[in-house]
């Protein structure tokens, strides 16, 4: 039996579980809280408590990872490094059943290119602490895989949208607005394309071992253009424009605008052969609207 252990069972990992479970996979997800574990189990998966602390590896967690064939890590790195490697690295390295490990990273590791294109051969030069931590975690996971001879793939993600979390919800909100910053573009990806791409990559194993792969759509686009399109699909007027310099953004939101780049998915789609379900936000939003009807 194939058994996926997802360390951090959030929005994206749950969509992957929904894809794999009907195919006969056993899925185990972890949560930091007992209530979170109960929610995982109510959804029909195996749950285990993991707070992220190296000294907090329970017998239940140890039992949960025994027999794992695939591992997916979405837990964020801490200042001291990757918490999963610190707590479970030795145990996972000793698992003879483990065929592949994936680490959810971010396209933020590329830093700012002034809107220029990047791909997996582009040197990673993150500008912020979040990107720097992710790059350090990528490096640690790849080194771990090479040392214990386990295939590891770092999965670099852009902005994620999907059911309940998309521009369709944002433009309906009372505080909706279009932040205008000249030349700014972002990549994005539908959550079901992350799930599909991860499933595809897991079947390749050796071809995707010890590498980083961008999982992103075909069309980097200005965020205001996406909101205008979403409003048009809903038959409502677009939200008002607000210049970036006048926008009251949180430090986290403002940090995203410090980096401007176009991210290529050629490795995923052309070389590794994954066919995107939603090549651009247009197909993705149309599908979400259709599902909601």
What does this structure look like?
With 293 residues, this protein is an alpha/beta fold. It has two domains: 3-159 and 189-214, Rossmann fold (3-Layer(aba) Sandwich), CATH 3.40.50; 161-187 and 218-263 and 278-292. Helices cover 39% and strands 18% of the residues. The chain has eleven helices and 13 strands. It has helices at 11-20, 34-42, 59-65, 83-93, 129-148, 167-172, 191-204, 223-234, 251-256, 266-271, 281-292, and strands at 3-7, 26-31, 46-49, 70-73, 100-106, 117-118, 152-157, 159-161, 178-180, 188-190, 211-214, 241-243, 262-263. A seven-stranded parallel sheet has the order 3-2-1-4-5-7-11, with helices on both faces. A two-stranded parallel ribbon has the order 6-13. α1 (11-20) packs across α7 (191-204) and α8 runs parallel beside α11 (281-292). It is globular and about 55 Å long. It starts with a strand and ends with a helix.
What percentage of amino acids are in beta strands? 15-25%
Strand-pairing-aware structural class: alpha/beta
CATH class of the largest domain: Alpha Beta
Low-pLDDT runs of 5+ residues are none
Number of helices: 11
Instruction: Count up the domains.
Output: 2
What is the CATH architecture descriptor of the largest domain? Answer: 3-Layer(aba) Sandwich
Tell me the major beta sheet: 7 strands, parallel
- The gross shape turns out to be globular
CATH superfamily of the largest domain: NAD(P)-binding Rossmann-like Domain
- Determine the fraction of residues in helical runs and give it as a percent range: 25-40%
Radius of gyration: 19 Å
The first-to-last residue Cα distance is 37 Å
Strand element count? 13
The H/E string reads EHEHEHEHEEHEEHEEHEHEHEHH
The largest sheet has its strands arranged as 3-2-1-4-5-7-11
Overall mean confidence score, pLDDT: 93
Query: Which fold name fills CATH's third level, the topology of the largest domain?
Result: Rossmann fold
């Amino acid at each position: 039996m194939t058994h996926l252990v997802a360390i951090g069972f959030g929005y994206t990992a749950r969509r992957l579980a929904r894809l794999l479970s009907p195919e006969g996979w056993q899925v185990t997800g972890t949560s930091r809280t007992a209530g979170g574990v109960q929610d995982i189990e109510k959804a029909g998966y195996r749950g285990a408590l993991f707070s992220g602390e190296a000294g907090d590896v329970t017998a239940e967690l140890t039992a949960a990872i025994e027999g794992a064939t695939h591992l997916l890590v979405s837990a964020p790195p801490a200042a001291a490094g990757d918490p999963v490697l610190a707590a479970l690295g030795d145990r996972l390295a000793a698992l003879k059943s483990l065929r592949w490990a994936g680490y959810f990273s971010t396209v933020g590791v590329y830093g700012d290119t002034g809107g220029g294109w990047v791909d997996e051969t582009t040197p990673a030069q993150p500008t912020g602490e979040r990107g720097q931590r992710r790059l350090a975690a990528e490096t640690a996971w790849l080194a771990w895989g090479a040392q214990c001879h386990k295939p590891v793939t770092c999965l670099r993600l852009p902005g994620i949208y999907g059911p309940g979390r998309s521009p369709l919800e944002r433009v309906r909100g009372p505080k909706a607005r279009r932040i205008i910053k000249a030349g700014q573009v972002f990549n994005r990806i539908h959550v079901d394309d992350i799930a599909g791409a991860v499933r595809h990559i897991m079947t390749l194993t050796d071809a995707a071992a010890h590498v980083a792969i961008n999982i992103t759509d075909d069309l980097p686009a200005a965020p205001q253009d996406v909101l205008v399109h979403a409003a048009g699909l809903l038959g409502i007027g677009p939200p008002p424009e607000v210049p970036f310099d006048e926008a009251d953004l949180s430090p986290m939101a403002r940090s995203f605008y410090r980096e401007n780049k176009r991210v290529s998915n050629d490795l995923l789609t052309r070389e590794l052969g994954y066919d995107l379900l939603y090549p651009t936000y247009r197909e993705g939003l149309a599908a979400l609207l259709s599902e909601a009807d």
